[in-house]
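Need a sequence for this fold. Nothing fancy.
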């Protein structure tokens, strides 16, 4: 197990690879892993060409969700979307498939991609069944099945308890529960009048996942689904439970990260990140967005990027992308790319503010100063876009752009100011 090795000061090829990529000392990275401040999601039964480190002191990572839906059962299309996301810079992929070909999609995704893959096993456990039929054993078996298939991290909604549901019922939330997994577990608890099996059998889940060294991602099933519900008692009740589960994971040498909201206004993002980091003893924080307004359907990749930049600046480690299709429909390849790029920009902006990486921006500035268009394109976060613009709207003077043409500020400054 990775944490066990790290505690003994041992390194792995993944640690060495990530240390080099992140420009961090191997010993320093190993200590962060030993403390649980950094995770490297990787099933010990799977080889990953591009492993990734998530957590304190590392660059902000981006996750892209893909997956079939009951209305769209095209596995090949989802694989294409995953590859598009990776090409655009996604560090991890989550398969959130629903439908009859869920297993087929996951198997192919694991086979054809070289980044960490995550799932939410209860989607499979619950799909096609009525709530009364589902047993604790069904859920545990599905978790084990996903581990055996080779997934690198799984989301479990183990913080939703009977107490959390009671808290929800006492509040006046506008949008009760918006998490798919959260709603399923809440329905199970309510129907059976029993405690959440993911919570009650948490120790057993740890035993299952430890065999494969899978990273647990503790899901935020009570996350706010609109600005009006942000940072309420229900959300914080769940977080308090997750903080205790983080401690259990570390006692058993299980890698763990914690998921967070959601829809959060700008002025509450800093608090949300810092309270998670404090309660969960610096466990990596994996946030959806956050989305900072509810009124931008069709543009929620921008809404999420605004929130993501602020969250990452304050310590969030892993941004789950939001696409323009959020709240509207299943995203297509173009939506996926836009979502990844927006989150990558957000993460990179935060990394600059946190002093983690600035070289790319300096190199871009030098290329701009020198009117070196090819280098500017190569250094861009999405090289295809600037090349496309240059080709579509050229200028007679190929040295400049068609915005300023022969009145280019850089060219004028170079021509006159350097002479004095």
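Here you go.
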């Amino acid at each position: 197990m990775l944490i066990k090795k790290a505690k003994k000061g041992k390194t792995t090829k993944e640690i060495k690879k990530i240390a080099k990529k992140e420009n961090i000392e191997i010993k320093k990275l190993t200590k962060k892993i030993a403390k649980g401040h950094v995770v490297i999601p990787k099933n010990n039964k799977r080889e990953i060409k591009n492993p990734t480190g998530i957590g304190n002191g590392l660059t902000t990572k981006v996750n892209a969700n893909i997956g079939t839906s009951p209305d769209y059962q095209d596995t090949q299309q989802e694989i294409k979307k995953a590859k598009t996301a990776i090409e655009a810079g996604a560090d991890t992929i989550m398969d959130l498939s629903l439908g009859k070909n869920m297993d087929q999609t996951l198997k192919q995704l694991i086979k054809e991609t070289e980044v960490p893959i995550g799932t939410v096993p209860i989607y499979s456990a619950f799909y096609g069944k009525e709530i009364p039929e589902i047993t604790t054993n069904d859920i545990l078996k599905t978790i084990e099945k996903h581990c055996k298939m080779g997934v690198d991290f799984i989301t479990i909604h183990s913080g939703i308890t009977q107490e959390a549901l009671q808290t929800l019922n006492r509040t006046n939330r506008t949008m009760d529960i918006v998490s798919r997994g959260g709603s399923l577990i809440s329905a199970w608890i309510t129907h059976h009048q029993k405690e959440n099996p993911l919570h009650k059998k948490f120790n057993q889940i740890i035993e299952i996942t430890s065999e494969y060294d899978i990273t647990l991602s503790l899901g935020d099933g009570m996350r706010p689904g609109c600005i009006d519900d942000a940072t309420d008692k229900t959300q914080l009740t769940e977080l308090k439970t997750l903080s205790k589960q983080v401690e259990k994971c570390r006692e058993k040498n299980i890698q763990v990260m914690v998921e967070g909201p959601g829809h959060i206004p700008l002025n509450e993002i800093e608090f949300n990140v810092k309270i998670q980091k404090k309660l969960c003893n610096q466990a990596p924080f994996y946030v959806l967005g956050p989305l900072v307004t509810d009124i931008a359907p069709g543009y929620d990749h921008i809404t999420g990027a605004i929130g993501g930049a602020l969250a990452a600046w304050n310590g969030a480690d892993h941004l789950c992308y939001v696409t323009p299709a959020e709240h509207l429909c299943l995203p297509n390849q173009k939506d996926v790319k836009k979502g990844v790029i927006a989150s990558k920009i957000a993460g990179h902006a935060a990394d600059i503010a946190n002093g983690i990486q600035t070289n790319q921006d300096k190199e871009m500035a030098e290329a701009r100063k020198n009117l070196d268009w090819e280098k500017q394109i190569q250094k861009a976060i999405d090289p295809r876009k600037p090349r496309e613009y240059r080709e579509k709207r050229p200028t007679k003077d190929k040295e400049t752009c068609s915005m300023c043409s022969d009145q280019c500020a850089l060219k004028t400054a170079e021509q006159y100011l350097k002479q004095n």
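For context: The longest strand covers residues 61-66.
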